[in-house]
Amino acid sequence: MAKAPKLDNQPQIVTANDLLSGDVVYLTKTAAWTRKIAEASIVENAQAGAALLAVAEAQAKMNIVVAPYLIPVDASASPPRPIQYREIIRADGPTTEIRKPAA
Amino acid sequence: MYQYDEIDQTMVDERVAQFRDQVARRLTGEISEDEFKPLRLQNGLYLQLHAYMLRIAIPYGTLSSHQLRGLAQIGCKYDRGWGHFTTRQNLQYNWIKLEDTADALADLAKIQMHAIQTSGNCIRNTTTDQFAGAAHDEIEDPRVWCEIIRQWSTFHPEFSFLPRKFKIAVTGSPNDRAAVRVHDIGLRMHKNAAGEVGFEVIVGGGLGRTPFIGKTIRDFLPKQDLLSYLEAILRVYNQFGRRDNIYKARIKILVHELGIDTVREKVEAEWQATKDGALKLPQEAIDQIAAQFAPPPYEKLQGGINADYANAFRTDFEFGLWARRNTFKHKQPGYSIVTISLKKEGEAPGDAKAEQMNAVADIADRYSFGEIRVTHEQNLVLPHVRQADLPAVFKALKAYDLATPNVGLASDIIACPGLDYCALANARSIPVAQQIALRFKNWERAHDVGELKIKISGCINACGHHHVGHIGILGVDKAGEEFYQLTLGGSADDQAAIGDLIGPSLNATDTVDAIDTLVETYLRIRKDSDERFLDTYRRVGLAPFKEAVYVAA
Amino acid sequence: MSLLKNGHIVGEDAFQLVADDATVPASGAVLITYARWQAEKDQLSGRNSPLGISLPNNLDVLDFGPEAERFDLIVLSFPKFSDGRAYSQARLLRERFGYKGELRATGHVLQDQLWHMQRSGFDAFEIPREDAAEAFAKASRSFTNVYQPTGDGRVSALKQRLAAARKKEAAE
After folding, report:
1. B336 and B263 share a domain?
2. Which three-class secondary structure string do you get for chain A?
3. B57, B91, B110: which is the final residue of a domain?
4. Quick check: B105 and B57 in contact, CB under 8 A?
5. Which CATH number does the domain housing residue B178 bear?
6. In chain C, what residues touch B243 (CB-CB under 8 Å)?
7. Within this chain, do residues B377 and B427 fall inside the same structural domain, yes or no?
8. Distance (Å, rounded) from C-alpha B502 to C-alpha A94?
9. Is the Cβ of C59 closer than 8 Å to some Cβ of chain B?
10. Residue A94 is nearest to which of B420, B477, B480, comparing CB atoms?
11. Distance (Å, rounded) from C-alpha B488 to C-alpha B515?
12. 3-state secondary structure at position B92
């Protein structure tokens, strides 16, 4: 697995997988979970990131999501674009044509 | 084919109930994710990049048409209508929901199937030769032993929390199509001097981070002693396998660190105490299982080449191409074994849509006694086809894009799901496989190159078996970019070998070009068209290939 | 923490845990460590009261096995539930060395492994939950049949099928 880059003071969001469905989800400003990366809560520094992650981990303990973690994003893009390729694939889906899921 | 009796059926039904209860307890938080994870893994449920993935067991790669139809139906009901056949003869569905899994398992149980122990630190699916029971070069049908091992290993209370996963493979032919030498335990059936059939027992093979070819722990093990001996090996492994480092926890590391002689000593000492005990197999019990693998009601046909087949071979060019690559000699006169290629150039290797699965089931009913096999090279097999029916089978398969004439050729690529799906991956493998296969779409070139096994893994876990590819491709992460390392000369057959690294990693485009370069080099320096790529490599070594890829402008 | 023995919650442990540096009382059921046993075997062998021992989960039980019969309690450990070494230790103690005393599982003992533990020969469990008896009863009912024989006396599928075939033959 690609080593996660150290997240310092850079735009970041929290992602996880929904426990029941397995869907890729992102934490919103209202501490809810969305499948749309556009609705993710973006924070700008490591401290805020840690706080966001703590909220997510509390939700994991409530059996809503599994294994939340922080990922860096390019906040200037709309919707925000993950920096790591793996996270782009998680957001967009597999890159192989035949396997593109029905919309 | 093995049919469940009441004991087997009750076993899977109770397992579904158990899992349903475990899911319920997970959702209330009674058990944590850490506690739940091994339980769902031992029911084949992984959490991957996008969703849960369910790995359905296909014991020793054998399926009935009824089961294949059932799998198609389950794929449509709970997933997105296509599945992926794996390098361990299993089937994966990539979009399963946890909330549906117990229901999916219940539907599987109705067709005598399950996802038991397809993941987790336990004994996994026992795999074998995809031509078992049909191949002309077979000593005995290994599936009898695979079924005996399957039952012994299912819910084994002592071996459900091993240091790491444990994989067993069996071959009944001296031409090993089951890759027994790169499994935790490999069993090779053969005859001793007295003409009795028994097992050579090989331990400590494996791919992944530290690949090893297995070592022989015992030259000849009588059939009745199979389970007691396996239990002795597992008991030694369970006790002494490393638990401090997951990358050093397989039995191959134990064999490497203690040496095969010490491991053998421990195993044989343990076995001496148990060999005459409850696990000794009575002949009656063996016969009961063997009876379920009796050959199908073959017609009494002439030996040699059937006239209709020969005629079609001569006159129908496409059919001839296909028959040359995709059929294998059957032991029964007048019959043939068909490999169904799931490697149409440009498609994801090993994938099958529900309609293709249904088509294969229908064709199997009509032409192969309703029986299908899954190969560890991600293709399917119709094991018992009359030669006279081969043209019709070809036509029927072609209608569903299942007749690409490339078995064993460069475009018959093994590829793991890779970064498109897998949480462990460093790089994507499917797009690379697709691009390479397209370079060999030209049948002339592909057939001229001949046998060339290309295997791609998206990470060092080597689920694509890249170490034993004639050309192996390993995806790596280089500063956040996808790069690929190439190895040459690997092989999973009787002269098993781990491939040699050719040089620094390349990006995706350069990797695909490098394959072309390697093939062109082979074509230039091979002795004649009978010398396979692997043979040329074994003759000339790495240098000319390395130079061609890295030095040339 | 509940101590479950033979399916029932036991109010108090009959065995008194004695630290390595504490004096072992002359009488009464005591539980000592393996290290203690190794150091004071001779002195302890003279006691007339029940003796219990905790074995490290990485101990090669073949070394200890012949001495097992001297104990009324053997405690095996699951430091993490995923560490399954004690299953082999348990089976060896029961089936190789004929140990008949209490075989107790401690550590990370969870409901979903009680089936495996019971089949491996454990008859006592330290479970961190109050409804341990119910959990155990449920776990014991997990499967009607078993494929492989252990020392638990359950008849394997293979033996069941052989018996059925012979019965059928006799009837014909």
Report:
1. no
2. CCCCCCCCCCCEEEEEEECCCCCEEEECCCCCEECCHHHCCCECCHHHHHHHHHHHHHHHHCCCEEEEEEEEEECCCCCCEECCHHHHHHHHCCCCHHHCCCC
3. B110
4. no
5. 3.30.413.10
6. 83, 85
7. no
8. 30
9. no
10. B420
11. 11
12. strand
Q: Would you kindly state where each structural domain of chain A is located, as residue ranges?
A: 9-72
Domain end, chosen from B257, B289, B321, is at: B289
8 Å CB contact of A101 and B95: yes
Report the distance separating Cα B65 and Cα B70, nearest Å: 8
Longest dimension (CA), chain A: 42
Residue among C61, C58, C16, C64 nearest C38 (CA) = C64
| DSSP assigned state of B305 | -
Interface of A with B in 35-64 (CB under 8 A): 60-63
In a domain, B103, yes or no: yes
**Residue A51, C-beta contacts closer than 8 angstroms, at least 6 positions apart:** A43
Question: Residue B25 falls within a domain, yes or no?
Answer: yes
Q: Residue C67 in contact with residue C59, Cβ under 8 Å? A: no
Quick one: B442 exposed, middle or buried, by C-beta within 10 A (0-12, 13-18, 19+)? exposed
Structure tokens at C155: 């008849």
Computed on alpha carbons and rounded to an integer, the radius of gyration of chain A in Å comes to: 13
Residues whose CB falls within 8 Å of the CB of residue A48, separated by 6 or more in sequence, listed in order: none
Asked if B324 and B259 sit in the same domain, the reply is: no
- Distance, in Å, from the CA atom of B10 to the CA atom of B29, rounded to the nearest integer, reads 28
Is C83 at the interface with chain B, CB within 8 A? yes
Which residues pair with residue B473 across a beta bridge? B456, B486
ipTM above 0.95, yes or no: yes
8 Å CB contact of C149 and B156: no
For C123, the 3-state DSSP assignment is coil
Q: Residue B270 and residue B264: Cα distance in Å, rounded?
A: 10
Upstream peptide bond of A79 is cis (omega within 30 degrees of 0): yes
Domains, chain C, ordered by start: 2-141 (3.20.20.70)
Annotate B336-376 with DSSP letters as a single string. Answer: EEEEE----TTSPTTEEEHHHHHHHHHHHHHHSTTEEEE-T
Q: Are residues B475 and B393 part of one domain? A: no
Q: Do chains B and C touch (3 or more CB pairs under 8 A)?
A: yes
How confident is the prediction along chain B (553 residues), in pLDDT tens digits per residue? 999 999 999 999 999 999 999 999 999 999 999 999 999 999 999 999 999 999 999 999 999 999 999 999 999 999 999 999 999 999 999 999 999 999 999 999 999 999 999 999 999 999 999 999 999 999 999 999 999 999 999 999 999 999 999 999 999 999 999 999 999 999 999 999 999 999 999 999 999 899 999 999 999 999 999 999 999 999 999 999 999 999 999 999 999 999 999 999 999 999 999 999 999 999 999 999 999 999 999 999 988 889 999 999 999 999 999 999 999 999 999 999 999 999 999 999 999 999 999 999 999 999 999 999 999 999 999 999 999 999 999 999 999 999 999 999 999 999 999 999 999 999 999 999 999 999 999 999 999 999 999 999 999 999 999 999 999 999 999 988 999 999 999 998 888 999 999 999 999 999 999 999 999 999 999 999 999 999 999 999 999 999 999 986 5
Structural domain boundaries enclosing B429: 414-550
Q: Model-level pTM?
A: 0.96
Query: Which chain B residues are closer than 8 Å to C120 by Cβ?
Result: 157-158
Euclidean distance between CA atoms B269 and B275, whole angstroms: 10
In the block, tokens 């997510």 appear at A56
DSSP assignment string, B175-194: S-SS-GGGSSEEEEEEE-TT
Laid out side by side, the sheet with B335-340 consists of: B62-64, B371-374, B380-386, B335-340, B327-329
CATH number where B318 lies:
3.90.480.20
Given the structure tokens 């036991």, which residue do they identify?
Answer: C10
Please state the domain count of chain B: 4
